[in-house]
From TrEMBL:
Top-level taxon of origin: Eukaryota
One Gene Ontology term, aspect cellular component: nucleus
Protein name: DNA polymerase kappa
Residues in UmuC domain copies: 101-278
Pfam families documented for this protein: IMS, IMS_C
Cell compartments where the protein resides: Nucleus
Catalytic activity from the UniProt record: DNA(n) + a 2'-deoxyribonucleoside 5'-triphosphate = DNA(n+1) + diphosphate
EC number in record: 2.7.7.7
EC category name: transferase
One Gene Ontology biological process: DNA replication
Organism: Hucho hucho (huchen)
Keyword RNA-binding: no
Molecular function terms from GO: damaged DNA binding; DNA-directed DNA polymerase activity; zinc ion binding
Cofactor(s) listed: Mg(2+)
Length: 460
DNA sequence: ATACATACC
DNA sequence: TACTGGTATGTAT
């Protein structure tokens, strides 16, 4: 069932372009056939060329790492080993198995909501998004290799009958608010990660019902049409997240709160399944022969010598099945940004006017939360998909359109001057402001629109 | 602090 | 024809 990612061997195509079948609903697909279509649609494009460049950079990074590895002595390794063992011992000693953390994930959320509103879609391959980009796909579509973060025009080649529905964020927000009310019944301090995902700590909830059969929201929420909720239940957030993905497309999975069960669960878990390990880290670890979490534990001394402290500590936690045991809503936000993609833009007036518009949009967003920021970052992406960021930090925090534009236009001007007399051939501009100062969290107030009923069932 | 990369949804 | 947008954080300088 596991592929451990997309780079099973040295095929002649880019691992970063190939189908990412890491997510559920993509098992047993004809990956070769799908990848051929993806490659055919992409090859030669500017996007593809840029991806190729990025992949070369990753390869170089791996080469540097392997060179570094070749210089490691037995002595260094055994010293690191001692350090790792001590740390492992300490971590294990304070392991907290007392909490019951739930990761909730609404399966193919946007697609499910759209299907509720248009039941005809139920039996058709469909995706939400546009010809440029898809955000979700239903299970029929996944069978063709169609998935989130894939451009619609490629998805159409994989599945000519694919129905693409435009996104309706307001609608998803409404449904999300409904679901969140239920989450709050189980944990008033639940942590929303996005419209369709959240972490809950149900330890208290269970404690209050001691002696009762253990109950949790089951996987089926009836809302005009079925909305499937996936639950992962485990002693910490990292494991809960992995668990919620375990029984897709319909189910819940509970990992018991004992060390033995956790360690068995971790053994064969591909590193890519862990949140925070993406395709680059997967590839780097793969170069060291590490594909599953056991390997991670076995090679920890080596990892301690090759990676930064934060990285290998993270790896160590993963290899021991450790994760955060108390969920906390994020404090104040750390940044706010806005960016836009468009057809090639080379005219100066247009570029400056867009820059001003972005500053205005950002100023508006900042105002909504009564925030100001000190660092203004200009982000540019040219028609070859190359990204540049240029930042300037001010002595005082700013928030208005004019204040932002005063900085952003200089940053933009500098970049234009740098390439002149050639024009900047842009496809994206963005404007990022890193706030400090005043933070006010908005209060959610949503009307109840749907009736939600849900099953109660035992989780054992 | 700045630039760029990675990751998540 | 067509490959997102918002936020956080890691890596490197």
């Amino acid at each position: 069932m596991e592929t451990g990612g997309t780079s099973s061997s040295g095929e002649g195509f880019l691992s970063r372009m190939a189908l990412n079948d890491n997510k559920a609903g993509m098992e047993g697909l004809d990956r070769d056939k799908i990848n051929k279509i993806i490659m055919k649609s992409s090859k030669g494009s500017r996007f593809y060329e840029n991806e190729m460049k990025k992949e070369q950079q990753v390869n170089q990074r791996i080469e540097r790492m392997m060179l570094q590895k070749s210089h490691i002595t037995e002595q260094q390794l055994s010293k690191a080993q001692t350090q790792v063992e001590k740390m492992t011992f300490d971590l294990d000693r304070v392991r907290d198995l007392s909490r019951v953390i739930v990761h909730v994930d609404m399966d193919a959320f946007y697609a499910a909501v759209e299907t509720r509103d248009c039941p005809d879609l139920k039996d058709k391959p469909m995706a939400v998004g546009s010809m440029s980009m898809l955000t979700t796909s239903n299970y029929h579509a996944r069978k063709f290799g169609v998935r989130a973060a894939m451009p619609g025009f490629i998805a159409k080649k994989l599945c000519p009958n694919l129905v693409i529905v435009p996104t309706n964020f307001d609608k998803y927000r409404e449904v999300s608010a409904e679901i969140r009310e239920i989450f709050a019944d189980y944990d008033p301090h639940f942590l929303p990660m996005s419209l369709d995902e959240a972490y809950l700590d149900i330890s208290e909830h269970l404690e209050q019902r001691r002696g009762w059969p253990e109950v949790l929201p089951c996987n089926t929420f009836a809302m005009g049409l079925l909305l499937v909720i996936l639950l992962g239940i485990a002693p910490n957030m990292m494991l809960a997240k992995v668990c919620s993905d375990k029984n897709k497309p319909n189910g819940q999975y509970r990992l018991p709160s004992n060390r033995q069960a956790v360690m068995v669960f971790i053994q064969d878990l591909p590193v890519r399944k862990v949140s925070g390990i993406g395709k680059v880290t997967e590839k780097m670890l793969g170069a060291l022969g590490i594909t599953s979490c056991v390997h991670l534990g076995q090679e920890m001394a080596l990892l301690a010598l090759l990676f930064s402290e934060t990285s290998w500590h993270h790896f160590l936690d993963i290899s021991l099945g450790l994760g955060s045991t108390h969920i906390e809503r994020d404090g104040e936000r750390k940044s706010m940004s806005t960016e836009r993609t468009f057809g090639e833009m080379s005219a100066l007036e247009e570029q400056f006017s867009l820059c001003r518009q972005l500053c205005q949009d950002l100023a508006q967003d900042l105002q909504k939360e009564a925030l100001k920021g000190k660092t203004v970052t200009l982000k540019l992406k040219n028609v070859n998909f190359e990204v540049k960021t240029r930042a300037w930090t001010l002595p005082c925090a700013v928030a208005t359109t004019d204040e932002l534009f005063a900085v952003a236009k200089d940053l933009l001007k500098t970049e234009i001057d740098n390439v002149s007399p050639q024009p900047l051939r842009l496809r994206l501009m963005g404007n990022l402001n890193l706030p400090s100062l005043t933070g006010l969290n908005g209060v959610y107030r949503w009307k109840k629109i749907l009736t939600i009923t849900f099953h109660i069932c035992c989780i054992y």
